[in-house]
Amino acid sequence: MNENSPYIYNKVTIVGVGLMGGSLGMALKDKGVAKEVMGWGRNEGRLAAARELGAIDRGTRDRGEALAGTDLLVFATPIGVTSRIAPEWFADAPPGCMITDMVSVKGTLVDDLTALAGPRRYYASSHPLCGSEDTGVGAARPDLFDGKLCLITPVPKTKKPAIGGVQSLWQALGMTVISMAPTRHDQVVAAVSHFPLLLASALINQIGDEKLLKFSGTGLLDTTRIAGSSPVMWAEIITANKKAVLGQLDGMMETLMLVKQHVKSGDPARIKGWLQRASRRRRKM
Amino acid sequence: MNENSPYIYNKVTIVGVGLMGGSLGMALKDKGVAKEVMGWGRNEGRLAAARELGAIDRGTRDRGEALAGTDLLVFATPIGVTSRIAPEWFADAPPGCMITDMVSVKGTLVDDLTALAGPRRYYASSHPLCGSEDTGVGAARPDLFDGKLCLITPVPKTKKPAIGGVQSLWQALGMTVISMAPTRHDQVVAAVSHFPLLLASALINQIGDEKLLKFSGTGLLDTTRIAGSSPVMWAEIITANKKAVLGQLDGMMETLMLVKQHVKSGDPARIKGWLQRASRRRRKM
């Protein structure tokens, strides 16, 4: 970080230039947060596409080149990839470097990466709550983060300057930052994101006869929209957040048992009270 | 019906002038299907509003006045009201009159009303698959039926001319008409409409901590949109379609048990295959 420059960061290195990494690069340049954005990826063609779309200034497949002189390193890779490659990236990151990730399930990742950071690097974990049903840098947008929430998930060993640095990064991109423990984070996203995706998929799969789908109105279309998202990505997320997702599944089975009793009673007043609670809450959202 | 007139019907009487009845009146006049639209309701103020919005030409609280010279009588009332008032309306309807309803759960209604029609009136039941989260004539729109599906649900005793007449009514309003037995109808709408509403409400109610709702993205907003609809109306619909809704509830509990096994296995490939099936189907919709 250079106080004589209008930029917060001289060089930002983004690991993985897909929807999230590409949007981050665009936003950093758009808001004048980074002087240079370097993208790292395994595929030359995709790096070239990211360059052409203005998501990165330079692209490389070489870790050393990616990290030279970097003052902010961001992992925009999926959960599994991030845990696997983190040790070598942390080892090679310049001393004093700020590091974050954008992984959507935290599990033990934050503890693991905090240990890797050691005394000379500043790591705090983050999860910007935004995205798209589309994937890849072609779907990237500089305004993806604007006005959205970002969760940061420190652990007791997270350094204060790392929290401050990562917080100001996302705030500079127009986000509201909220801090919570990794375990709480995983429960929250299971409830508002991972489990709803699972339930929407269950609803689609339950309509056994595909011919029935033509009778669906906008209600069913809305209710099942997220079920059209990337199954590969979601299978990884749900598996990684297994514990919290199983908690939601058990909760839903209990809820449906209760609803069954309401419906079985044949008394509209019982189901009406329950629907009213949902309706009031939905209108507040 | 008068062959010397450009209209299909000289006088149409709509019982209940809310969202559906009001939209029907507007559409009948918009497409030149009816020369005169008469609205019946219990509330003078609402009838006046319907007249001002152009949903009806005349409004009355008097059944005799409503029925005088009518050649098409349409019940746009909720299920319970329709069953309760049908006997006196059928008794007073002019001989030769065509009659239909727009009730969204059929149960034994079609058999009951077919018996009331006797030999001199032509009754066939219908259910236009369209609507709105808003209620009342203020939300009525002349294009509500355009390009949508209408299910007609004849029973063995339904007269052929009644089927033909009701079919051409909805076709004249731009709808595609599909015929099925009442029991099948109730199963279909339970699967694509009533149960999805119940599931969206369950998802909202399960998120016990209202503070969590602020973390919800567009996914949860879409998935739960229908849960904001009228609890009174839906409590009646779900109770009336109890048997088919309970079938869906049992099916969902089985589906969730299966999903639980997939998630519990910790093998992303198992949940991926299941998500892929949902994703493929959703994209077809």
Textual characterization of the structure:
The structure is a homodimer of 285-residue chains. The first copy, chain A, has 285 residues and is of the alpha/beta class. The first copy, chain A, has two domains: 9-180, NAD(P)-binding Rossmann-like Domain (Rossmann fold), CATH 3.40.50; 185-284, 6-phosphogluconate dehydrogenase C-terminal fold (Orthogonal Bundle). Helix content of chain A is 51%, strand content 13%. Chain A contains eleven helices and nine strands. In chain A, the strands form two sheets. A six-stranded parallel sheet of chain A has the order 3-2-1-4-5-6. A three-stranded mixed sheet of chain A has the order 7-8-9, covered by helices on one side. The model of chain A has no long low-confidence stretch (mean pLDDT 93). Chains A and B meet through α7, α8, α9, α10 and α11 of A and α7, α8, α9, α10 and α11 of B.
Summarize it.
Two copies of one chain form a homodimer. Chain A has 285 residues and is an alpha/beta fold. In chain A, 51% of the residues lie in helices and 13% in strands.
CATH H level, superfamily name of the largest domain in chain A: NAD(P)-binding Rossmann-like Domain
Biggest sheet character of chain A: 6 strands, parallel
Strand order of the largest sheet of chain A: 3-2-1-4-5-6
- In whole angstroms, the N-to-C terminal distance of chain A is 39 Å
**Largest interface between protein chains, with number of residues from each side:** A-B, 82 and 82 residues
The CATH architecture of the largest domain in chain A would be: 3-Layer(aba) Sandwich
Tally of contiguous helical segments of chain A:
11
Quaternary form: homodimer
Which residues of chain A form runs of ≥5 with pLDDT under 50? none
Strand content of chain A: 5-15%
Can you count the beta strands of chain A?
9
Task: Quote the average pLDDT of chain A.
Answer: 93
CATH topology grouping of the largest domain in chain A: Rossmann fold
The chain-level structural class of chain A is: alpha/beta
